[in-house]
Amino acid sequence: MTDAAHNERWIRWLNTVQLVIAGAVIMAPTVWMVLSSFKPSFEVTAYPPTVIFAPTLENYVELTRTTPFLSYALNSLIVTVGSTALGLLFGIPAAFAVSWTRITWPAILTLAARMAPGTLFLLPWYVMFRQVGMIGSYTALILSHAVITLPIVIWVLLPSFDAIPRSVFEAAQVDGCSVTRILWRIAMPLVASGIAVSAILAFVFSWNYFLFALVLSNGDTKTLIAAAFNFIGEGSTQWGALMAAATLIALPPLLLAALVQRWLVSGLTLGAVKG
Length: 275
What we know:
Blueprint: H1 3-37, H2 41-44, H3 58-66, H4 69-101, H5 105-115, H6 119-131, H7 138-163, H8 166-174, H9 179-190, H10 192-208, H11 211-216, H12 224-227, H13 239-264, H14 268-274
Helix pairs in contact: 1-13, 3-13, 4-7, 4-10, 5-7, 7-10, 8-9, 10-13
């Protein structure tokens, strides 16, 4: 074996070790959360922690017995799907317009809104929605969560639209296509992978957002992430049920995150340019 091949083998081995260590560090809290959800309640906060234990479903039973979990899950699904759809509805043409005109300040403005703390919007929204009687409605939650999903959609799709050669659009204009038809018939199919990724990321961020759902919802529209707060009390915290709720809340984003990889490597835009 040559020195170059030997060094390459060691570099590959070291990269593998680094990835394993990084993955273990990142996934350790998630694994601990899932394992704790199957522990008896008194063992969740035991010190030293119990590694070997008899699994039980009592935390999940307690969760479904004390809370309308399915109702909260439906509320989360309605708000998340609605805000994701709203973000796609306005974000796709907005990203295309920014890419088409090369005027970037609207995209920067949405990014600034996304980077600002949620409390900056919360009080004005609360006052506004209260004046029109929309506190506790799905509409208020969907509109507020759109502030999260819209910037994500725009900034994920901008590089995808920019990667399409101008010659493709110019050829369509020569054939008599309007800008709207170019977006619908040409640009969107070419950035389908980007649309899928932006939709999944918007779904994950909206699903996990806590602040707006806590303040703007009521008992009928409370989402899972806000309902989990009920297990934290002043005198005691139901750690077992809280871990079970966190596990179930994290399940949809984790499943969707696994789907992102398939879309990221699809290479639809590259294939179109080659054609």
